[in-house]
Each structure stands twice: as structure tokens, then as C-alpha cells.
Amino acid sequence: DQQVKQNSPSLSVQEGRISILNCDYTNSMFDYFLWYKKYPAEGPTFLISISSIKDKNEDGRFTVFLNKSAKHLSLHIVPSQPGDSAVYFCAASNTGTASKLTFGTGTRLQVTL
Amino acid sequence: DAGITQSPRHKVTETGTPVTLRCHQTENHRYMYWYRQDPGHGLRLIHYSYGVKDTDKGEVSDGYSVSRSKTEDFLLTLESATSSQTSVYFCAISEAGPSYGYTFGSGTRLTVV
Q1: What is the CB neighbour count within 10 angstroms for residue B50?
Q2: CA nearest A107 in B: which residue?
Q3: Residue A97: per-residue pLDDT
């Protein structure tokens, strides 16, 4: 039972354009959402997060949007750079319970020149 | 780096042998987690700890046990390794739960032959 889903295994975007990575969740108890970025042979690194009381959070080139009614969040990267090429994981937690993150299956982003 | 190390980085072992992976942190964080990463599954939680001697199961805990006798070390043991446990294992630490973000180690690639 995949509670956090990333339906696009891969995405290719030209340098300078916008990258949009999507994530859907099924558990309505989730109230905090995060994005992690992973390069090969390294551990994931935290990128950006959003609480369920917000619908948008921005950090530089990265913006996360949350649509609670649709149980959907997205990560926008503008402008995309070659160094953004990595696997991106969406994750969710219920801060009212034990401290656990549930991750999606990941989307591999390739930013081409 | 954030002061989290995993050992070994790579291991090949035979089916039926016991294997222990170590996660060591120097951050004095309360929470520690073990995840495995597999294609098509993303990151799945195996076990986690919310303090010394306080551990709990994640979604894929069968065949694994953990121990945390001191704050800085979290051990993951495969009692009798099987080929289905071939994976990349990541340890993560968190100061106050997932809402504060995890810091991941670099991973251990385990192959069971």
C-alpha cells in the first residue's frame, strides 16, 4: 500500500526551463511534506518542506506547492540547471504520531544542455 | 558533513549468514532510522529509534533486528541474510522528528549471494 506516490519515474528538462515534479498521497493524516534530492552513491539530502497549514513554500529556485483537497504536492525548479540532475523523493509525515517519514518511489530528473 | 557515518560501505555476504550494519553519529540526535532503497520502491523504513534502547518497527522489518545501546550507535542486523535483502541501506538521524528533516548517511550497499 503505497501511501506516497510519484507516478513519473523520470523527467527530462532543458537547462533554463522549469522542472515540475509531482507527488500524490493517500493518507489524510499526513501534515508535513518534504522533498529530498539524491545523487548516485550518496545519501538523500533535504531540499525543502511544507506544513499542511500552508499551500506554498519557496526557497530560491525551489518552490513546493500543496493542494490538500487533491492530496497533491509539486516541486517546481526554476530555472533548471544541469546540477539539478538527480533523483527526487517526496516524503510525508504525521507529526502527531511516531517520528517517521514515508517516502515516494522517486523521480529521476535529467537537465539537458 | 553532518557527522553520520555508515560502515561498511559495501559488503557481499552469503545467504544464511548474519550481517550487522553500523550507523554512527556525532550529532547527539535523539532519533535514528534505518531505510532500504530498492528500484520501484523508493526508501522504505525498516526500524527506527527514538532513544537509547527505544526502538520500533517500520514497514519492512521482517528479517531485521536493531539495537541502540548508546546515543551515537544504531546497529541493524540481518539474522540470516537472504537474496531479497540485497539492497542499499541508509541510516538517518533527526534532532526532533521528521519535520525537522533527516540527515542521511552515505549508504551501505549489501549484496547477498
Answers
A1: 17
A2: B42
A3: 56
